[in-house]
Write a structure and sequence with these properties.
Elements (H helix, E strand, L loop, with lengths): L14 E5 L21 H12 L3 E5 L9 H19 L5 E2 L6 E5 L14 H6 L3
Parallel strand pairs: 1-2, 1-4, 2-3
């Protein structure tokens, strides 16, 4: 199901960040810069729905983050964009950063907290606070 259109603090419709390894593509440990795992079908379907609805989606990955050489970042972006074109039908922007226009981040390592509280969202939902 496509997300509802929301405005960000900056007033735009924003973008959704999707982690690559372990979220959009299977990951069973680092296998090198040229290797990206098989697509995770549920996430691929979700991203395709977002794209069809006109939502901007970006790949958010440490593969292009600080500490990587310029060459490694360039190669990683090319490999990821090719993977996206093959599995999503479109090459997506690749970043390691979030900004004020990001409305959601889908990541296998993230833990959501309720804004300004430090309370884990699942604790609030289950009454464990």
């Amino acid at each position: 199901m496509a997300p509802e259109k929301r405005e960000t603090d900056a007033g735009s419709s924003g973008w959704i960040g999707v982690d690559l390894d372990g979220t959009l593509a299977e990951s069973h440990g680092w296998e090198g810069i040229y290797k990206i795992g098989a697509p995770v079908s549920a996430m691929v379907a979700r991203v395709k729905e977002w794209l069809a609805a006109g939502t901007e989606v970006r790949i958010v990955t440490a593969r292009v983050g600080p500490g990587q050489s310029a060459t490694a970042v360039f190669v990683s972006r090319m490999v990821i964009r090719h993977w996206c074109a093959k599995h999503l039908g479109k090459a997506l922007p690749v970043t390691a950063s979030k900004d004020f226009d990001m409305i959601e981040l889908w990541d296998d390592r993230a833990i959501r907290v309720i804004a300004n509280t430090g309370v884990r969202a699942h604790e609030a939902l289950s009454g464990q606070m």
